[in-house]
Amino acid sequence: MFSPQPPPAGEGHFNPNRRRPRQNIVHPASRTAQRHERSESNVSHVREGSTASAGGSVASGEMAITRRASTITGKDMDGGVVDWTRNETYRVSKLPALPPIFKTCTVKNTKITATTNSANGYALLLSHNSAYVWNYTTPHTLPNTYSFPLPIEDVPKHVDGPFPLGALVSPSANSSEPGLVVVMPMTGQVAYWDSVGSAVAEGLFSRKRGVEGKVPLMSSESAISICAAEPAGFMIALSSGRLAHLSLRDSHGRPGITVTIMREHGTGIMGGLLGALRAGSARRDVMAVRAGRIIRMGEREVVVATTRGTIARWHISRSGAYANVSDLDLREQILAALEQSERGLNTRREQYMVMDIAVMDHHVSSSAEDHDVRILVFGAYRSGFGEDTLYSLVYFNLLAGGHTAAVENVHIIRSYTDPLEIGQPPRLYLPNPGKTAFLVFPRAVVVVSTLQGGMLLDDAMEDNDEEQPGVFEDVIDFRGDVDINIIGGGMEDVEISSTSQQEVSSSFGPIEANPQVRKHKNPGIIVVAKGAGVIRIEAFDVDGRRRVAAAPVTVKSKLEQAVFYGIKQDNPLNFRGRKETKYPIEDVEAAALQISKEILGSRSPYLPTLLPALDAHLALRENHLRALVAHLRTGDVGRVSQEVFWELLSDAEKCTAARAVWDTRNTRMRENPDAGEGVLENTIINHLTSEGADIADNDPVRTWFQREVEHIGELVHCIKKGINAPQSKGKLDPITFADADAEANAVIIAAMMAAWDFRVNSAELYNLAGQSGIDQNGLCKNSLNFPAPWTSSPAILGSLDEFYDFSTNVLTTIGNPKSTEDPRRLEIVEKISEQLVHLAEILCRAFVERADWCDQKGAAGEQNLLQEGTTVRERYIKSRGNWIKPLVTNHLDKAYEIAEKWQDYRTLVEICSVQVMDTEVKLAQATAGKDSEATEDLKETMAETSQRLERYFEGFGEHFAVQMYEYLVENGQLQKLINGFEQWRQIYLTPFLRDDAKYAKLSWIHEVSLNNYQFAGEVLLKVATDSEEDLRRQQIELSIGKLAKLAGVQRDGGSADSLAAQAIVYDVKIDFIKIQQKLYEAVVHIKRDALDIDAAVHLATDEYGHKLRRKPGLREIFRKAFKELIQNKALKTEELVDLLTLMETEGGILGGDEFYWALRAVALAGLPQARRDTVERTIWRRCFLRDDWTSLTATRNKTDDQVQELTRETCLYRTLRLCFAHGLFTDESPFQPMAPADCAFSADLKELLARFPTADEHTLNDIGHALIGENTKLEAQLKRGNLANWFQGILMDAREEKLAGVDVHVSIEGDTVMEE
Predict the structure, then answer these.
(1) CA 33 → CA 28, 172, 253, 790, distances in Å?
(2) Using one digit for the tens of pLDDT, what is the confidence trace for 1080-1098?
């Protein structure tokens, strides 16, 4: 029936003559020790479509253990093992050994089940028609596989029929290979081989089939599970609820099958009255059979659980004797405990099912004849079909005597709530030392820490130890896009061994306390999964000095697993998280930033400390930083802010920059292996490595790149410190000095450009793309809430500017034309020249980046950064031309390119203009020398430059045009400004000249050239009125403006009236100028007689302002106005009035007509009403004060003609008469004669401030006192000279003379008076 076969082709051929490989198993010294070893074995069985059991004993106690370290880069150091994930609590790895039949079954989707036995390292694979055994611990990918065909008559007709039951048996004394027992579920046929290898060998040379037997089954009854309970044999659970004991050896220790059906009351002395009294109800729904403690030699306790919560304790013996110790229904206690732990849960009996149990430990009772047993019950509570399931672990203490059980603790599984799959019940594994439980589902494994030492939760929390016990819980599941299903497995208890060597610490665990004990296998489980293979899940929970982690799995741990293991394409684990576990986004962001910093500084425990190639180590860090962001971008852990992405991007940039710098170092070393330490090494050693720093392998440079990459910006800032030090210049020759500068430039360029290139290429990945994100230059358009970019820190900006100047000076020093024959010098000159191109680009980019960031911060209210942004931008605009223009000599195209890219229009204008001028000079020389070929080339060059300028006008528009026009103005190229670039004159030159008043004198010429005559006239009027200081030019501008305006009006069809109206505007201004010219002609002789202007002012003050000596305020006004007059500068209205009214001389400076001309000037000026009133009062007041009214009014002994003649000689009469004669006092005129009482100074400070807005208080006081003095004199004339009455009489006389037809005409050009 059972005929073993050798390994088939492709599965590792078995050679019976070949020595079997020695297994790492310590053979017992005696048969007793052998039996004891067997008793410690743990075998578990999980089947598709059926229930199964796992059994094992758990030893308690403290131990000091370590594990072998491994790396995350792929395979373990023991060969072939591939880590899928690992954290501080557990490790998941794929074992290499997998028989081809497993892959075949996976491809063909054949139904299979599996079990493993950690005691011997073998696995058993069962299908409906075959059994396969192989050593799953071997490093070979194709292990020797032993095949055992099963009876064809026992194969179920349906593919979903029950699977054969199988278990691996502890090796016999003379073998290192396990035995095999197989039970056919429907017929009960049993076969046993004490060694799988010898079974195959025997099958080759004989017809022997091992030892066979049969389980007596009732009708419709089948075997559903098998449990190893060695040294007491095996337990078989039947579908009817019955239990069968299976013994594989007879009383003499020879192979032999004995099956005993176990009844409720037990047998012999072990049963008796105790078994009869404790007989329980039927167990048709047996879910788990688990081996417990070893009672004595050949005897063991077994615990049986049903889905309904019935727990039975049995004592069995290898001889077949058995006894039912207890039979308790715990479902009510479980439901009550769940309701107490999960508030709001209303349980129903039929919705709760026991999934599995595990025996934890036992304690001797007070009678010392029986034991309390602690078990862990794994259950599921289903609220409805297809809905989430509530899974739980309930800690029970089955008390001695069998009547009661106490609930010690309850743990609700929070991390996994997937619905319970029908036909695939989950299983519970609790490997020794029992600190971590594994809940195995078809596509997931839940890892849960357990309480220690039987301690109740309340008692544990009162413990004063440093770390309190708690519950760690995490889920290991598979991705949804892979077809993987767990079909079986088994436990791996911790294995320890003593050693005198120095302890080896765990990759994550603390240093062991006992150097004489170390661990070589962690506790865990082995799971066999279709689509994946053999998977080991091991826990790091065996350190006796510390307790199981009290906190749940941290978001940092979950992120680290995704980052360091999720990047592997062939890793089937799910790292995207589960719906049950959500973390606050703040915690996610903080953890992500911490992980990023640890990767950048090689501080992560998941990174190898060293790799042979540092470039590979930097590349590895780059990959993990990228994986971190890619995982965050999935959104599975929440929506991470752009601010955090920006910080993560900065870290990745620094890593990329460091790798680029290291590449330049490697390139230098390859090109010159004997070069020794260069600028990079010296900078790191002398400026970036602190004293006492921990330097790996006595190599500070590699150590810096391993640990200090975060400070790559400081390296850029310091890179030229060594060569830039004063003492270095005296020690190095110019060529060596220049070579060092070139090396430093290479470092700067590599770091900065690599960082920006990475930023541009990674914008989408880091969620920083788009209109407000990172542009093509690597600059972030909206960085308001972002930290400052490290690529443009103030230190780097200052250094870059200095470094550029330093390199240009070096280039000037070694670029002497006399030394161009030196090849090395030429090479360095060319290198630095090319580097200047990159440095100019870097400078422009860095300055713009910093200025933009500061501006955004400043706009948000950070005033210090606003000021910094303004300063940086001003410095950039001022300096960028000096960075670009040195490139013209050797890299003209690059100079154009950089200036265009950064829109430095001024530099583009200057480069083009210089090119044009140089070409014009060369063209003239070539033409004069009749060099036709050179002439044609230069004409072509000129045409290219002209076309470039046209492209700039078209592409850059007004911004470029403004810079071009300003350059032409500054360099006096006015003809080119007006006549050049004809295509763009109307579009750009017109607004350029119109918008800025300082270009008005050019604007009118441009307007005339465009036939805009009226606008040209208006421009000239504005220039003459607002800005022209020279009187003659003012008159000329007004005259030309008048002509232009009239020409424009006439061209546009204006009438004679409109022409006259337009002319009046200009005539008024011209008449005002003529008044000043009249006054100038009267005093110009003083200018001719004086040595200089100041002397002329002094003479005029003595001659015309002698009455102002005690009036400092008015004297200063007089001196200032006269100085302007004598220089023929245009005077303001008030200044002209002051001169006309303050200058006193015999007969008057203008023949007594000064006050008329003052009023006439006011009438022409068009002053605002308030200023006009003030000036008008001043004129009349000083007119009244010019004559002595007391003497004039002494009329005694005078005839009327004499009195009338005296009054007509006064300034008042002459002024009134001229005003009447020239129509100044018409009814339509705003000017009328002002009475003496109305022309006093108001003594209002506002009135003075309106006239002298910039004068200080002292000056205003002086002027005010002088004007008040005028008021005082006027009041005296009113009182003593009866001025008010005389004013009325003289006014009447002047009016009557006008009415009488006597006209007086005064010409502005002269002082001729004509009377009619």
Answers:
(1) 5, 12, 14, 69
(2) 999 999 888 888 999 999 9
